[in-house]
């Protein structure tokens, strides 16, 4: 059984909007609805858990779940950090869940093809991250001064979904909480306990809606791919 945990319990501070960014629209459809749709339609996904803020549960049910007819979606509540939210989502997994895909609700343009590729490679390797090779030259900067320029040919930008065999993600999360470790993505937790995490080719369209200008980019991506 394959489960998707879609996290949408952030506060969207960088978006500076008067509602949580997941409920903002990209060409008349909410960011979160775009994201959920891709997993809901995928015949290889058996369970969807959406993590939302408790005070946004009614808004989620009315504006997303009921409006688009997404049935059998489980809800988990958000935590203080993204990682805490995912911990709550993991606790809701079905007992038969074997592969767990963790996806940002703020990434509306994941595709069914990439989801299926991630599932296949996770079955083979145990832990995978969707991402893309960076196009810019990356600088390591301290106090405004470049300290290093990593070899671009080995630098990738991590996206989501980040997918794991269930025992791997559960062990990685358990260890992170024992150590008081917080990572900026899920793979870091698995890397820290020694798992080899494989990259899966993502898409440059799979952007995260983070700041106001992203909405404009998103509208043009949506028009191009719809
Ligand atoms: N406590 C949190 C923090 C983040 N997220 C989710 O993690 C994803 C990536 O996080 P980010 O883009 O940083 O979202 P926010 O934390 O909402 O944004 P900001 O940092 O600007 O407040 C988003 O789908 C967000 O809803 C979450 O579920 N719970
Ligand atoms: C998980 C992630 O989307 C991979 O790029 C990213 O690390 C989330 O980071 P944020 O600080 O919550 O934006």
TrEMBL record:
Catalytic activity: 2-C-methyl-D-erythritol 4-phosphate + CTP + H(+) = 4-CDP-2-C-methyl-D-erythritol + diphosphate
Top-level lineage group: Bacteria
Annotated pathway: Isoprenoid biosynthesis; isopentenyl diphosphate biosynthesis via DXP pathway; isopentenyl diphosphate from 1-deoxy-D-xylulose 5-phosphate: step 2/6
Site positions for Positions MEP for the nucleophilic attack: 152, 208
GO annotation terms (biological process): isopentenyl diphosphate biosynthetic process, methylerythritol 4-phosphate pathway
Documented EC number(s): 2.7.7.60
A Pfam entry, by short name: IspD
Leading EC class: transferase
Family (UniProt): Belongs to the IspD/TarI cytidylyltransferase family. IspD subfamily.
Protein name in the entry: 2-C-methyl-D-erythritol 4-phosphate cytidylyltransferase
Lineage: Bacteria, Bacillati, Bacillota, Clostridia, Peptostreptococcales
């Amino acid at each position: 059984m394959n489960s998707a945990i879609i996290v949408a319990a952030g506060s969207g501070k960088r978006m500076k909007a008067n509602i949580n960014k997941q409920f903002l629209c990209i060409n008349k459809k909410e960011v979160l609805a775009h994201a959920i749709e891709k997993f809901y339609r995928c015949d290889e996904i058996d369970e969807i858990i959406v993590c939302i803020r408790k005070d946004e549960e009614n808004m989620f049910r009315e504006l997303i779940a009921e409006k688009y007819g997404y049935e059998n979606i489980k809800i988990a509540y958000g935590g203080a950090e993204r990682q805490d939210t995912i911990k709550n989502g993991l606790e809701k997994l079905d007992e038969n869940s074997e592969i767990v895909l963790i996806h940002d609700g703020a990434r509306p343009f994941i595709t069914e093809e990439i989801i299926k590729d991630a599932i296949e490679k996770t079955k083979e390797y145990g832990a995978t991250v969707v991402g893309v090779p960076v196009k810019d030259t990356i600088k390591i900067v301290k106090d405004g001064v470049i300290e290093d320029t990593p070899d671009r040919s080995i630098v990738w930008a991590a996206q989501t979904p980040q997918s794991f065999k269930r025992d791997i993600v559960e062990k990685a999360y358990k260890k992170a909480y024992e150590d008081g470790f917080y990572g900026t993505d899920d793979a870091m937790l698995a890397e820290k306990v020694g798992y080899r995490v494989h990259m899966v080719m993502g898409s440059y369209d799979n952007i995260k809606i983070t700041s106001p200008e992203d909405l404009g980019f998103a509208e043009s991506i949506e028009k191009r791919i719809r």
